[in-house]
Each structure stands twice: as structure tokens, then as C-alpha cells.
Design brief:
The protein is an alpha/beta fold. The chain has helices spanning 3-7, 20-25, 32-43, 50-57, 64-68, 75-89, 94-104, 110-116, 120-133, 135-143, 174-178, 180-192, 208-212, 216-233, 243-249, 252-256, 267-274, 293-296, 303-310, 333-336, 338-353, 365-377, 387-396; strands spanning 156-157, 165-169, 195-198, 237-240, 263-266, 286-289, 316-318, 359-362, 383-386. The protein is 52% helix and 8% strand. The strands form two sheets. It has a five-stranded mixed β-sheet with strand order 1-3-2-4-5. Strands 7-6-8-9 form a four-stranded parallel β-sheet, with helices on both faces. The longest helix is centred in the middle third of the chain and has 18 residues, at 216-233. It is globular, with a radius of gyration of 20 Å.
């Protein structure tokens, strides 16, 4: 932990109303400034106690406080460094270690996730039984999406019409195996806008889940492999369609100690910079757009998705109340802190329900699973789609 970064906090309290856990519990130690106070205690010599680790674990890492802070406190960097210390020094209970072992030996590995796909149809039925055994296992089952058939992308997707650019595309882990239709839509949209899309077959996990959970060695190993895959591909820009992945990849220089040979951009950010050439066909839909925390707060990408959706004829865009409050997904948070995540998911589902929208649009697979599960619990019928899927439908002139 960096004492200088800790001392940047003046404890003004602007972060309090933006913090999801403070909103849930009203506890000072479960607010950003409270956690920074605990970090300061540790830097000054206090060992990491189980109670202290619990407050750090309870943080979603949503970065809403970073957006709200008038002093420019780098809480994002602080919580990541703190979690590395927690993983090094804190001895977890056996059950917690076992759950974390399952999560981090499964989700960063697409081939292992692929083995789960034939059993996904059983997940919702098994959730109540698994919850009784362990809440985290129950959460994994309850969140499982209904997976469509696998869609494999070629190594190169050619631009339609005149080629305007060449970009690399990250497939991701959860996105690749649980939402293959999103990657297919992303490649089609980029191609229709005049991009050759390079998809390196040797790419794996970007390391985001590990970074956000303090698993430093695993994060570096996965990130290094990702960098090598795209540098060998020879692309100058890598387009990412998952908010958490894009956020971590933009910070590779801090993680790895060197700048990769390419820039990283979110899909909506890249399309807005590139400018449209393909014709937009009408989509008569009322849409609510959900700000994924690692897109809005961590990357500062808010206007671009709204601009892209707003440019579609006949599409009506509605804002979600409390849009800055996290849905409770937060990488692995909804697996490791299932009760708090469920409360936040239910809160988000209620807010979405007030919009009267027919379709919820999200730019992160974790958010999609989290909000869809919460909507099912609430008896809602709203569909959930990625920004890429909406754009793809408009460009091809088909209904979602």
C-alpha cells in the first residue's frame, strides 16, 4: 500500500452516497473513507485482522467513489494493492479457500468453462439445493445464463466494403463461453463499419478477475499471455466488449511494468471515435441502458454507448434511477459475497422496472447475468442484450 495515495484522502464524505455497501449497511468501515482509514492503520503497523479483511472483501471495487471524489483519491489503485496484501497475509477459513479455489481455477479458463455448458440447463433447478450446501455455490447456479449454441469466430473477419481500419478483438472468458452471440455481433458490427477484425486464437483470459481479487501472480501471468497474443497479431488497437476486461487491460502498464504495443478501447468508445458509415435501420424499441461500473467509473465511458443507441431510428432510450449504484456483479463479488450482491441486484432490478423499458442494454457479461437473475426473482420479463447486439440488429435490419 502506498502511504502517499492513502494520505490523499481528506475524509470529506463525498464518496458515502455513491458507495453500494455504505448504502446497504450505513457502516463507516464499509465506506471508501472507512476502508482507507483501515489501510492507514495497516501501513502504520496494525496486522490485517479477520475483521479488517472482511471490510476489504465487502468492497465491490465498483469505483463509483473515484468518480465522486473531489480530491482525486486513487481508491481503485488502493483497493487493488490492499487486496494483494490481504491475499498474502490473511489466512482464510477452509470453506472460503475452497470456494475461491473453485472460482479462480474455473472462470479465468475458457476451456474449463466450456465443460460446464452441457449442464447449464440444470443450474436453475439445482440452485436451491446448492445454496443450502454453500451460498456461493448456490449463487453460481442461480446466475447461470441459458447458453446459446457455440459460435466460433475465424482468425480474421473481413471488412464489409472499403476497409477503414484493422483491429484486434478480445474474446474474453465468460463472454466467449456463455455469451458467444455477443462476440459474433461485435465482429459483425466492426466489419460492417469497415474494420478487418483480427481474432488471435491463442488468446486466453485477460487477468481482470485476478487483478480485482488481489491474485497478483495469476493476473500477471494471464495478462502477459494476452499481451503476447495481440502483439504477435500485429494490431495497434484491441477492441473489448466486456467492461471489466477493458478496465484491467487499460492498466496493463501498472500491472506488468511496461506499456503493451497496442492501445485498448471499449467497443462503444472505438465506434464513436471511428464514426459511422453503415446504415442504421429502425428498431422500434424502448431501451434502458445500464452503466457497467468498470465502463462508466473506471474507464469514464458514458456518453458513447448512449450516442450509439440514440442514433438508431425509432429506438427510445430511457435512464435507470440510481444508475451510479452497482448492480452487485463486480467481477466475482456476486459469487464470493452472495447476500450483499443479491440485495444490490434486487435494488437494481426494481430501478430497471420503473423505466417501463422492453429491453435492458448492458456492456458487461457479469452485469447481464446479475440483473437477469434479479429480474427473474422479481418476476420480470424484460430481455437483456449487449450494446453490440442492438447495433448489429439495426445495421442488419433485423429485430432483436
Amino acid at each position: 500500500m502506498d502511504p502517499k495515495l492513502i494520505n490523499d484522502c481528506v475524509h470529506c464524505g463525498f464518496c458515502l452516497p455513491t458507495c453500494p455497501t455504505y448504502a446497504l449497511w450505513g457502516e463507516e468501515m464499509d465506506s471508501p473513507r472507512g476502508r482507507i482509514h483501515l489501510m492507514k492503520q495497516h501501513v502504520e503497523g496494525t496486522p490485517i485482522t479477520p475483521e479488517m479483511a472482511g471490510h476489504f472483501d465487502a468492497c465491490l471495487g465498483c469505483m463509483a467513489c473515484v468518480t465522486a471524489c473531489p480530491s482525486g483519491v486513487k481508491y481503485d489503485r488502493l483497493i487493488e494493492l490492499t487486496r494483494v496484501e490481504v491475499e498474502r497475509q490473511h489466512v482464510r477459513e477452509p470453506e472460503d479457500r475452497a470456494v475461491r479455489g473453485i472460482v479462480f481455477n474455473l472462470f479465468p479458463y475458457p476451456r474449463r468453462l466450456r465443460l460446464l455448458r452441457p449442464t447449464m440447463w440444470l443450474a436453475e433447478r439445482m440452485a436451491p439445493f446448492l445454496t443450502r450446501a454453500n451460498p456461493s455455490l448456490g449463487a453460481m447456479a442461480a446466475l447461470a445464463p441459458r447458453v446459446e449454441h457455440r459460435q466460433r469466430l475465424p482468425r480474421l473477419v473481413r471488412a464489409r466494403g472499403e476497409r477503414r481500419a484493422t483491429v484486434g478483438m478480445l474474446l474474453g472468458c465468460v463472454q466467449r463461453e456463455f455469451f458467444p452471440q455477443v462476440n459474433a455481433a461485435t465482429a459483425r458490427v466492426l466489419a460492417l463499419e469497415g474494420c478487418d477484425v483480427v481474432v488471435p486464437p491463442e488468446q486466453g483470459c485477460c487477468g481482470a478477475l485476478s487483478v480485482h481479487s488481489g491474485r497478483d501472480a495469476q493476473a500477471r501471468r494471464l495478462a502477459g499471455r494476452t499481451v503476447r497474443a495481440f502483439e504477435r497479431a500485429g494490431v495497434e488497437t484491441v477492441v473489448v466488449n466486456a467492461a471489466g476486461c477493458g478496465s484491467s487491460m487499460k492498466e496493463y502498464a501498472e500491472l506488468l511494468g511496461y506499456e503493451p504495443g497496442f492501445r485498448v478501447m471499449d467497443l462503444s468508445e472505438y465506434l464513436a471515435e471511428l464514426g459511422p458509415v453503415a446504415k442504421r435501420h429502425p428498431l422500434p424499441l424502448t431501451v434502458a441502458y445500464h452503466d457497467a461500473c468498470h465502463l462508466a467509473h473506471a474507464q469514464g465511458v458514458r456518453a458513447q454507448p448512449r450516442e450509439l443507441l440514440g442514433a438508431i431510428p425509432e429506438l427510445v432510450l430511457r435512464e435507470i434511477p440510481e444508475s451510479a449504484i452497482c448492480c452487485g456483479s463486480a467481477g466475482t463479488y456476486n459469487l464470493l459475497q452472495p447476500e450483499a450482491a443479491r440485495d444490490l441486484g434486487d435494488r437494481k432490478a426494481k430501478a430497471v422496472g420503473t423505466t417501463g423499458a422492453e429491453l435492458l442494454v448492458s456492456a458487461n457479461p457479469g452485469c447481464t447475468m446479475q440483473i437477469a437473475a434479479a429480474m427473474r426473482r422479481a418476476g420480470g420479463t424484460i430481455r437483456v442484450a449487449h450494446t453490440a447486439e442492438v447495433l448489429d440488429a439495426s445495421l442488419r435490419g433485423v429485430m432483436l
